[in-house]
Amino acid sequence: MHIRSLILSLFFLPLVAFSQSITISGKVTTIESHTGIGKVSVFLSNSSYGTVTSEDGSFKLVGVKPGQYDLIASSVGFQDFSKTILVGNEPVNIDIPLAPKMNQLRGVVITTNANWKKNYEEFKKAFIGTTENAKSCVVENPHIVNLVNSTRKHTLEAWSDDFFIVDNKALGYRVKFLIDTFANNGITGIISWQGKAVFEELPGSAEQKKVWKLKRQETYYGSSRDFYKSLYTGTLAKEGFIIKRLHRELNPERPQEGLILQKIKYFHDIHPNRDSLNYWIGKENLSKYFRESLSPVPLEPYQIFSQAGKPGLFVISFTDCLYVIYTKRREEQDFKDLYRPLDMPNYEISVLTLFEPYAIFDMNGVVFNGAPLNEGTWSKSKLAELLPYDYSPETDK
After folding, report:
1. Is residue 107 very low, low, confident or very high in pLDDT (cuts 50, 70, 90)?
2. What is the spatial distance between Cα 229 and Cα 212, in angstroms, rounded to a whole number?
3. Whole-prediction pTM value?
4. 84 forms bridges with which residues in the sheet?
5. What is the residue extent of each domain of the chain?
6. pLDDT per residue as tens digits for the range 219-253
7. Is residue 220 classed as helix, strand or coil in its secondary structure?
8. pLDDT top residue among 4 and 37
9. Within a 10 A sphere around the Cβ of 142, how many other Cβ atoms?
10. Residue 192 has what DSSP assignment?
């Protein structure tokens, strides 16, 4: 066997080993008496694998695709159970002990109906999105969300004590989301959240399901998951991705965002002064970065990608920022602080910045450790673009 053939065989060995579907089974019991608990929601977070325990607490998830998942068990009166599992080529059996829920005091939130509506609209835009898919999303229970808007921190926070349910009629899914934390920082523009979700297929005619299938494929191709999966399968160029290194520095002429917002508020609301207000608005309009330079030669996958210690897990690591170009679609939105060479076609661009030395992702293209900050096209993807982790355009039925 030639050396090159041997290397390729070794590289794709994990894909062969993890080609089958697996069953996860077990029993949910009380942590004290070990008595089985019925009607507990058991699911793999952000996937379409979910069920409810039988009266004796037993459960079974069938046909699970290999990958890394968070196994969740949730029931009223008990603390949520969460455990990260790596699904390989062997069945998984796990017993889940649930502890009684302790009353958690988050503080009393006093708000008017008008303020709640205003906060909720901001939350919807930041959490569900403003894309075409988002326009087709219907929230079943908006008041399940608790909202707090801190004017001092310029941050909107949210959480839910039960499933926040959204019917995504663009993609054909009902998404049930437990929102642990959500924060929309008005100063940095960074949106962050933690939670658990389970997907259910919406009922529809055969014709409607064809439309959903095409829309899911459109949403998936060019996404971050498509990129990560193309990275480890060695198909970046085929799928339309080009990667380069972007170097940039913060603009010293532009003050920190918090100071700009403080001054604009002061000279607009507290001590009106048109000249001062225009001065700070000018600072706000300055570009956030300067001395930006894009590497002329595209990066090769081996320069940023490697396999992790466990089969089915992979590592991405890079310096400066990673500039991801998707050549199969044009960008319609203008991103103020996104660098784009004048001679580059209007392709979709996403810029990745690592907060940790590296990030880890699995064979479904899902980043679960050290997730980078996404700017540009991928920053538009919110719940309305969220597909189950087990979704694949090749196997979508």
Report:
1. low
2. 22
3. 0.80
4. 70
5. 16-98, 113-219, 224-251+288-380, 252-286
6. 999 999 999 999 999 999 999 999 999 999 999 99
7. helix
8. 37
9. 14
10. E
Whether the pLDDT of residue 153 is over 70: the answer is yes
How many residues are listed for the chain in this entry? Answer: 397
Contact indicator for 163, 144 with CB cutoff of 8 Å = yes
Q: Which residues contact 375 (CB under 8 A, 6 or more apart)?
A: 335, 337, 338, 350, 351, 352, 353
Residue 112 tokens, joined: 């008017």
Mean pLDDT of the chain, nearest integer: 88
Say if strands 191-201 and 155-160 run parallel, antiparallel, or are unpaired.
unpaired
pLDDT surpassing 90 at residue 185 = no
Q: Per-residue pLDDT averaged across 103-130, rounded?
A: 78
What's domain 16-98's architecture? Answer: Sandwich (2.60)
pLDDT digits (tens, 9 = 90+) for 66-77: 888 999 999 888
Distance CA 286, CA 298 (A): 29
Residue 98: φ, ψ to 5°: -110, 135
Cα(321)–Cα(313) distance, rounded to whole angstroms? Answer: 22
The CA-atom distances, in angstroms, between 78 and each of 102, 104, 390 are: 8, 12, 28
Distance between CA 372 and CA 359 in Å, rounded?
Answer: 7
Tokens of 128: 């569900």
Cβ proximity of 41 and 52 under 8 Å? yes
Q: With cut-offs at 50, 70 and 90, classify the pLDDT of residue 356.
A: very high
Q: Indicate the range of 7-16, 37-46, 376-385 predicted with least confidence.
A: 7-16
Contact between 248 and 320 under an 8 Å Cβ cutoff? The reply is yes
On whether the CB atoms of residues 86 and 68 are closer than 8 A, the answer is yes
Mapping DSSP to helix (H, G, I), strand (E, B) and coil, where does residue 167 land? strand
Question: What is the spatial distance between Cα 318 and Cα 247, in angstroms, rounded to a whole number?
Answer: 11
